[in-house]
Amino acid sequence: SLTLDNFTAAFDRGVLGYLLNSFIVVGVGLLLQIAVSVSAAYALARHKFPGMRLVLLLILSTMMLPEEILAIPLSLVLADVPVLHVNLIGTLAGMIIPVGAWAFSILVMTEFMRDVPVELDEAARLDGAGDLRIFWSVVLPLCRPALGVIGIFGFTMIWDQYMLPLLVA
Prior knowledge:
By secondary structure, this protein is mostly helical. It has 10 helices and no strands. Helix 2 (15-46) packs across helix 6 (103-115) and helix 3 crosses helix 6 (103-115).
């Protein structure tokens, strides 16, 4: 006979807490990922500095590595974070921090920001705007389509993590 006992048993065992943890990790991780990718892309697309091509090459090369190769080094780093000397194994922060810098979102935002005309920056600079004001008021509003792309793909990437929860849990 058809019954809903499994659903009541799942709610009795606290499945809502696990679902809340998932939404916290995805929400905060996605915000961190967007903040890191937008700021890195602005620096890579708008400012010229020595070694910029090397930085882009390193970012692209991280996309070619499967996450299984990074599992052991990541677990060692999360077990003892070098700067803070804290153990992030078993915490939500241990799941949020590694998804903060995703190479795909940095590359998408960099290429999109390169297509925003530099003349808009120059016009804003003539009006007295600084770098932060140009970024916030000129470049970022024009990058809304790319923000939507990295938001959708970033949500999917974080939600579909399999290896990271196994390492951190």
